[in-house]
Amino acid sequence: MIYDLLDIMAGGIHPPISVITSWPSSAGASSAHSNGVLVVTVIFGSFAILTTLARL
Predict the structure, then answer these.
(1) How far apart are CA 11 and CA 30, in angstroms?
(2) Does pTM surpass 0.70?
(3) Which of 19, 31, 39, 55 is the S-S candidate for 15 at Cβ 3.0 to 4.6 Å?
(4) Nearest Cα to 13, choosing from 25, 26, 4, 22?
(5) Transmembrane ranges (predicted)?
(6) Who's near 6: CB < 8 A, 6+ residues apart?
(7) Distance CA 8, CA 6 (A)
(8) pLDDT digits over 18-36, tens only?
């Protein structure tokens, strides 16, 4: 059923090559952000695991 809906779109689920080539490259994007997301993930992930283990 979902595939029938995707067939309605002109390019399917993939954009045309001309659109892909117009996107900016993401080579420098990783150095522009800090490691804040990693820190928050480690803190809340550890808290979630400890909370789960405490309930057992």
Answers:
(1) 30
(2) no
(3) 19
(4) 4
(5) 32-54
(6) 12, 13
(7) 5
(8) 888 898 877 665 666 678 8
